[in-house]
What we know:
Aminopeptidase
Amino acid sequence: MAAVVDTLRAFFAPSTFVIDAENPGDVVARENLLDRAMGPGRSKKSSEKLRRGRVPADGLALVTRDVDGHVIGTVRLWNIEAGVTREGQAVPALLVGPLAVDPAHEGKGIGGTLMRAAIQEAKNRGHGAILLVGDAAYYERFGFFAERTQHLVMPGPFERNRFLALELKEGWLEGAAGMLVASGRKLAMPPVKRAA
Ligand SMILES: CC(C)(COP(=O)(O)OP(=O)(O)OC[C@H]1O[C@@H](n2cnc3c(N)ncnc32)[C@H](O)[C@@H]1OP(=O)(O)O)[C@@H](O)C(=O)NCCC(=O)NCCS
């Protein structure tokens, strides 16, 4: 009976969550969440090459916390150069590191709220565009489309129809061509090793 009551309570409870800046105490919880949400192959993705050994863009590592402060969602944006313009100038932009929500909390609007908060913060900070590799069916709702990445390539295997971009400033990616390059600040120390 108690189990049934708990289930009903969980079902009817208001889904309360807050968005917060990630802090150093969140690293282990975030990595565990990413393992659960994305599976073991996540570190082999081409986007990982653009993140390894770097810190996220200033102010653009966000988490969602539940009422007890536990991390149940994560998104980080990374500084990159999205190829070069026709005049040969590098095009600064951001790349979405995984957006992930704890599988126990999916479908409550957490992913959407977190993604919109990250987009707004990137806009506030004056960034021109955000790129990512992900499901178009999910990311189109935020304004991400494959059209603007036509002449760009990831530094490794990727599926073109999943390589998407959102311009925060109109025309920012106009004419941008070439390979994405990491441009964020380098990590001062090696990443935290987790217990096996
Ligand atoms: C994708 C993810 C971040 C969505 O988080 P969430 O908190 O459940 O998202 P929201 O509640 O804001 O949105 C849920 C909606 O998105 C849809 N959705 C979720 N993943 C989708 C996908 N890959 N493609 C299309 N639609 C998707 C759901 O069906 C749901 O639709 P509805 O609103 O019509 O019911 C989460 O499922 C996750 O962490 N997945 C594993 C990691 C991952 O794949 N991340 C990158 C996405 S390509």
